[in-house]
Amino acid sequence: MNQDNKQILAIELINVSRRFVSPTGKSLTALRDFNMTVGRGEFVAVVGPTGCGKSTTLNLVTGLAKPSAGEVRLMGGPINGIDPRVGFVFQTDALFPWKNVLDNVMSGPLFRGKSRAEAEKGAKDWLARVGLSKFIHHYPHQLSGGMRKRVSLAQTFINEPEILLMDEPFSALDVQTRTVMHEELLKLWADRKASVIFVTHDLEEAVALADKVYVLTAGPATVKSVYTIDLPRPRVVSEIRYDQTFIDYCKTIWDDLRQEVETSYRRASEAA
Ligand SMILES: Nc1ncnc2c1ncn2[C@@H]1O[C@H](COP(=O)(O)OP(=O)(O)OP(=O)(O)O)[C@@H](O)[C@H]1O
């Protein structure tokens, strides 16, 4: 990558608004004057109260949705539909239940025109990296939640995404498995340094993983504050939570986020 390319931002949301029309015909503004930038290789986490507009932000970056106003840019250019440079990991697995683990991971490269031999070699390599070599002939229903999530990571990383969008990918997992998955994700990410937007409700997860944490306001979401997380890498997620700097970041950001969470709850109870 030459110097000029490095300076081009991976993702830009510039003065973006996104409005929806509800089934009753009422207009709802989910995002308002929203600005966000993600540099090349940067890991950005997004936190905000429930229903504020976090997933809507990701949908705009996928190209599945268009902004009502403003502009979304990827790698310095406009978005034209679904971009092959973008990978996704969501809360629910996108695994094909009728395919075994190997075939699930091979499906992306095959779709992108790789030969069966190449796809199989790549899939086996990635499954080894996520510790699932012994399970390649298993079907998704024969795996634990953590193992399925590992398959999802292999399925995503095999396509070598330059941009990785993650929407609460680990929220359905138990606490211990989540910590293991955090470590795995950071290891996979460190090798290739995709540019990441990671949406989560879990502030500690955001601080442990990210270079920057965006705090969103209660809906309509706009950016309330951006924190740079100056914790050294590589990070050991199971230990970082005892680090005083980590605790200080969590406290400071929670003070900021709590006001928005309270606003959101107050509005919900007024509406009820
Ligand atoms: N397709 C749609 N049509 C109408 N309203 C929508 C649509 N998608 C989202 N919304 C509304 O936009 C707002 C933001 O939704 P969004 O899913 O982005 O929030 P979120 O922060 O990701 O929520 P959560 O924290 O619960 O996951 C919500 O009020 C939601 O009801």
TrEMBL record:
ABC transporter domain location: 11-243
Q: Which UniProt keywords apply?
A: ATP-binding, Glycosyltransferase, Nucleotide-binding, Transferase, Transport
Concerning SMART domains, the annotation shows: AAA
Task: Enumerate the SUPFAM superfamilies for this protein.
Answer: P-loop containing nucleoside triphosphate hydrolases
Membrane-crossing segments per the record = none
Note whether Ubl conjugation occurs among the keywords.
no
Which InterPro entries does UniProt cross-reference here?
A: AAA+_ATPase, ABC_transporter-like_ATP-bd, ABC_transporter-like_CS, ABC_transporter_ATP-bind, P-loop_NTPase
Pfam families assigned to the protein according to its UniProt record, in alphabetical order: ABC_tran (PF00005)
Is this entry keyworded Transport?
yes
The UniProt GO MF terms for this protein read: ATP binding; ATP hydrolysis activity; glycosyltransferase activity
Q: Which family does it belong to?
A: Belongs to the ABC transporter superfamily.
Quote the protein name from its UniProt record.
Answer: Mannosyltransferase
